[in-house]
Write a structure and sequence with these properties.
Layout (H helix, E strand, L loop, with lengths): L2 E7 L4 E7 L1 E6 L2 E5 L6 E5 L2 E7 L2 E7 L2 E7 L5 E8 L2 E3 L5 H17 L5 H24 L2
Parallel strand pairs: 1-9
Antiparallel strand pairs: 1-2, 3-4, 3-6, 5-8, 6-7, 7-10, 8-9
Helix pairs in contact: 1-2
């Protein structure tokens, strides 16, 4: 029987690994689904939701960009999906109050930064990135 094994990792931690029935995410090309016996492929993940359907239910992660790889496993009919995300977390683990505080801090930083010199441009981009992460967390954590 064909199987699908999924692993979601970030530089800090392996978030989840196990058997799944489907893997659903979004790349720069659009939404896609990986099922058992999918062809080998590699691609990017844009910030958003990654869903892993299992026999026990759905596991949902928020990723802030990253990459995925699909390859045939060592066993016949085995398909392996690996997600490497710079920042990722289980949606159920999102602290909405902390995300709201991060959003407010990023907005304050954006209000204080000018873009006149290279140091301010870097600070401005970092604040924009922090704001995007906080808004994504809030959009999925509040549900």
């Amino acid at each position: 029987m064909a199987t699908l094994k999924v692993e979601v990792v970030s530089p800090e931690v392996a978030l989840w690994a196990g058997e799944a029935t489907a893997f659903i995410a979004r790349s720069s090309e659009g939404f896609f689904t990986i099922l058992p016996e999918h062809t080998d492929t590699v691609g990017d993940l844009v910030p958003g939701i990654v869903r892993v359907d299992t026999a026990e239910g759905e596991i949902v992660f928020v990723v802030h960009g990253g990459y995925f790889q699909v390859e045939h496993g060592p066993s016949d009919g085995e398909t392996l999906v690996t997600v490497l995300a710079g920042v990722a977390e289980l949606v159920t683990a999102i602290d909405v109050a902390r995300a709201q505080a991060a959003k407010e801090a990023a907005e304050a930083e954006l209000g204080a930064v000018t873009r006149d010199d290279s140091a301010d441009q870097t600070t401005h981009q970092m604040a924009l990135d922090a704001l995007a992460r906080a808004e994504l967390r809030l959009s999925v954590g509040a549900k």
